[in-house]
Amino acid sequence: MNAARERIREKKRIVVKIGxxxxxxxxxxxxxxxxMEKLVRExxxxxxxxxxxVLVTSGAIAAGRKVLNCSSLNGNGERAMAVKQAxxxxxQARLMMxxxxxxxxxxxxxxxxxxxxxTIVDDLNRYNAHNTFSELLxxxxxxxxxxxxxxxxxxxxxxxxxxxxxxVAALVGADLLILLSDIxxxxxxxxxxxxxxxxxxxxxxxxxxxxxxxxASPGSPVGTGGMNTKxxxxxxxxxxxxxxxxxxxxxxxxxxRILDGExxxxxxxxxxxxxxxxxxxxxxLHR
Length: 287
Ligand code: GLU
Description:
The chain is α/β, with parallel strands linked by helices. The chain is built from twelve helices and ten strands. Strands 3-4-2-1-5-9-10-8 form an eight-stranded mixed beta sheet, sandwiched between helices. Strands 6-7 form a two-stranded antiparallel sheet. Helix 8 packs parallel to helix 10 (227-239). Glutamic acid binds at residues 19-20, 58-62, 146-147, 149, 160-161.
């Protein structure tokens, strides 16, 4: 077994992020309860192994849109923003209700934490959030985190949950971040368009070339597509001393295989940078 993969078996504080597309059925946009249930069972089992777990979950806006029947209202503008925020208010509560219920079935306590950019940029907020996470983990609860989409507008939002999960990993001093997504990991190119695209199993240095590759392909669902936010997350996580793995959520069992040191997804190995300042990094996001 590769040494870096072997070290994953020793990880103690783990942040797992799952995206909306992994939690909903593509055909209907409704919640995929089987996937959620498997996720909760895996996370509960990781807790039972004596490890600490934080879940960063999307899906609030998607769930709310469904409940309020406003799937047609997309785009920008004040009204669209208000609709999105209203949807998240409804959807976040639904999402949390489902997580509470599922975690309770496995005898675990889920705790909701909603954050914005200000949670990190403001010194007192950051200090308080850090203390809250520490206390929740000490008490054995599983923090379930999302952006506070109901109040977060452009100026104060982190914007996407890939970045948010890395920020959380840095804030709580996690030693591993796992991004569960609808892609297998990092490729040299978009595998849908280029059959020559090679899969990259491990990244030890985030070179400028890699970061530029991510920038060139924002938003696409497969291959290097949508890699930009994942590479930003990798920068935050690795500089703060956490390994990061991008893996496909198709089979949620991938979580325990990663923790067993198996060669799943793309591993970005940690390279702590003492000069990395989380507050400054977050402050510069979207500027
Ligand atoms: N916070 C958003 C939601 O819960 C999702 C953001 C993201 O997926 O990056 O719907």
